[in-house]
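Exercise 7. Given the components listed, write out the predicted structure of the assembled complex. Treat all entries as one system.
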Amino acid sequence: MARRETPEINAGSMADIAFLLLIFFLVTTTMNVDSGISKKLSEKPPADYVPPVIKERNIFEVNINRNNELLVEGERMDVKEIKDAAVKFIDNGGGEGKLVDGVSTGPCDYCKGEKSSTSSDHPNKAIISVQSDRGTEYGTYIIVQNELLRAYTELRNALCKERYGMSYIELEKLYKDDKNNLELKKKVEDIKTAYPQIISDAEPTSAN
Amino acid sequence: MSKFKKRKKGIPAVNTAALPDIVFMLLFFFMVTTTMRETSLQIEAPSLPSATEVKKLEHKSLVSTIYIGKAKDTKYGVGYNKIQLNDKIASADQVPAFIINARTKVAENEIPFMTTSIKADKQSSVGTIIDIRLKLRDVNALKVSYSTNTGSDIK
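Answer.
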């Protein structure tokens, strides 16, 4: 008797609830953006390829053995030290740069290194060679790669700050947001050619 | 005149009863589409190494992923060096076919921008990675990204 006509359920807030759910899912399903250390592999050399002769002083040799221990330039080293050792090696600037279009780039005028005659000639000649064992753990390998990249980043940042008053990371970000800006592109290229990343992977030791 | 006045007096409320339906539809759409492109893992989810100098992978359609880790099913053997291509456990010899197959799905002018993302477990060995790398070089898939978490692993 009391309930002669059922009162209508108020569905006005239903939309709010649904919106809340929608926004929740939109926010939480951040499609996991893949990030990683990117590398460009060298092209397959022709069968009769003779590797160029590189002076010993321009190679920074890193060996990782199967027990994940490091041997850098013939000395045992901890992963923590490898970045500074690499920086020292790249930034040495003890001689003439490589030939670009037949013209020598001359001595490195932005290097802050010791200009030692036993370390690299020029950042564009300095090669970092990483040789690992087949049994080396991938985690260690990545740590070493990362430390070496950090060395380059540190040098690029320092040079970029000196020349353009901002770090290389900031510069790259600016360029990324404004791909058509030729001035920024020139700056990025400038830093990149000043410290090119030359990290090569040597053939692994042992075959099992 | 009197008729006109009468109409203007009470503005009828917009019927919003269908709004939840619309929103729910959107909700379901997003829920369904966000899980569609996920390959089921035949290996245990690899615990990726961490690095600081990482670059984001853009253009998901141009990325093919190779997983390396421990197989969930022990019939494939133990150890952290099992390779998964698409939905199957495979060997390094099948990598070229996998890459060529991935290439058929993209426009020809985009092929040079294709990247291979290697998602390997920390405990995998470098030998496996090198095998894959050699195969990738054979088919001229030169852009590689070693998938990592962001952070530092150095203790």
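Discussion: The longest helix of chain B spans residues 19-33. The two ends of chain B are 86 Å apart (CA to CA).
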